[in-house]
Design goal:
It holds the Pfam family Arylsulfotran_2. This protein is an alpha+beta fold and 438 residues long. Helices cover 14% and strands 33% of the residues. The protein folds into two domains: 40 residues; 346 residues, Neuraminidase, CATH 2.120.10. The radius of gyration is 25 Å and the shape is globular.
């Protein structure tokens, strides 16, 4: 019996190789252009990794989504907690700290108040589960915080949907359910300014009512037709190369701050007016000041900060920015003069004073010239003097090897509260932030 021709014998091999090559080509193109099944496979893989890493968090056993390695040291000190390095240089006053509760018996989130000696003197429990029945508290992150002279506080959450004001015992005074997130800032006119999705909103402090809003995509990022009037086109493509249709990717801007220019600071910024709002758009490294009525950008600058947070107006007419600087292991506090665009560095992490948070983070320039810094992704707070030396630091300790993410530290004067330090009958002192778990 004669053998079949060579071409017939090679046909199955050629067919298999062709299918393999086509599969590789299609897989490459599908991955590049997000064709089926690349997005589905990517989502499945991310979901698997997330569940594997955080299943203990999601069933309430351990807050793995909120735990980070401690900052300031390569080897965690089991006895770390509060350390006063130069107490004589400290600003004084009270320090508020917001984030995960290190006490397993309390509410998942808390805001704590520390006195000048670093002792906790009050705690606001944040009962997220009572405010929103749709999302588990352990899957949210307390982020925005404002404090009031009567001892109440207001808070917002990442991946949550609550904006609420709570009295000194954590009882809700009012609550709004929507996609509020990131910072909260009082405007000095009876409102708080924050983000709801991609919309800046002004919320009445006393009632929670939204009194004004300004949409990022619909108003601020309008397009080329108004660029000559001071509007900035924030898109990365033009109408000419999209056949008239603009499509945004997921979270192309990531707005993370909206700070109003208050009356007492306005004279230092002749380019702006009281009520103008400074915004931070992380994904495009943009800090800008916009007119609250029209959305017109009066000033903007892309970098040199990278994935920044928390730009603040300063009394000398400059703006300070928390430069996360991801990928470098060194975060910075930068200062820009909006008139000259000159940029300088107020503080940067170093071997002597490590400082790095690849995301999140807040800063505050204190009255004595010191900086209060929130090293969010390392669970550490620090005050440094104008020369960059540590004044004090605090680790928010979960156990011997982990800290909890901390989203903000803020200094307030000792006479801030109208009736003295807030108190609550059910308040129980807790030292778990300085005593690691076993």
């Amino acid at each position: 019996m004669s053998k079949p021709p060579l071409s017939d014998r090679l046909a199955p091999v050629v067919f298999a190789v062709s299918i393999g090559v086509l599969g590789i080509v299609y897989g490459t193109v599908a991955s590049w252009w997000s064709w089926f099944p690349a997005p589905q496979l990517g989502l499945a893989h991310r979901t698997y990794v997330d569940l594997k890493d955080n299943w203990r968090n999601d069933i309430g056993l351990e807050p793995t989504r909120h735990l980070v390695p401690p900052g300031g040291t390569e080897t965690p000190d089991p006895e770390r907690g509060f350390t006063a390095h130069q107490p004589q240089k400290a600003q004084g006053g009270f320090t508020l700290v917001s984030g995960l509760n290190t006490d397993p018996e309390g509410t998942f989130h808390t805001v704590r108040l520390y006195d000048p000696d670093g002792e906790e003197v009050h705690r606001w429990p944040i009962p997220y589960a009572e405010l929103d029945g749709d999302i588990r508290p352990q899957n949210t992150m307390l982020h925005g915080m404002e404090v009031f002279e009567d001892g109440s506080i207001a808070v917002t959450f990442d991946t949550g949907q609550v904006l609420t004001r709570l009295d000194s015992c954590g009882e809700p005074m009012w609550s709004n359910i929507d996609w509020y997130h990131h910072t909260l800032t009082r405007d000095g006119q009876g409102n708080m300014v924050t983000w709801r999705g991609e919309t800046i909103v002004w919320v009445d402090e006393d009632t929670g009512e939204e009194v004004r809003s300004l949409d990022l995509r619909g108003t601020i990022a309008r397009g080329n037709d108004r660029a000559q009037q001071g509007y900035l086109d924030l898109r990365t493509v033009t109408l000419d190369n999209t056949n008239g249709e603009i499509r945004y990717g997921h979270d192309p801007f990531h707005p993370n701050d909206a700070e109003p220019l208050t009356e007492d600071m306005a004279d230092a910024f002749p380019m702006f007016e009281a009520g103008d709002v400074m915004i931070s758009l992380r994904e495009i490294n943009l800090v800008a000041v916009v007119d609250p009525e029209t959305g017109r950008m009066k000033w903007w600058q892309h970098g040199p900060w990278l994935k920044q947070h928390d730009p603040d107006f300063q009394p000398d007419g400059t703006i300070t920015v928390y430069d996360n600087n991801p990928g470098t292991k060194v975060s910075r506090i930068m200062r820009v003069d909006p008139q000259t665009r000159e940029v300088s560095i107020d503080f940067t992490g170093s071997e002597e004073v490590p400082f790095y948070s690849w995301r999140r983070g807040k800063h505050q320039v204190l009255a004595n010239g010191n900086l209060l810094l929130t090293e969010a992704e390392r669970g550490r707070l620090l005050e440094v003097d104008p020369t960059g030396q540590l004044v004090w630091e605090r680790h928010m300790v979960w156990d011997a090897e982990s800290n909890v993410i901390v989203t903000e530290a803020r200094n307030i004067p000792e006479d801030f509260f109208a009736d003295g330090v807030p108190s609550c009958a059910s308040e129980v002192a807790d030292s778990s932030d300085t005593a690691p778990r076993h």
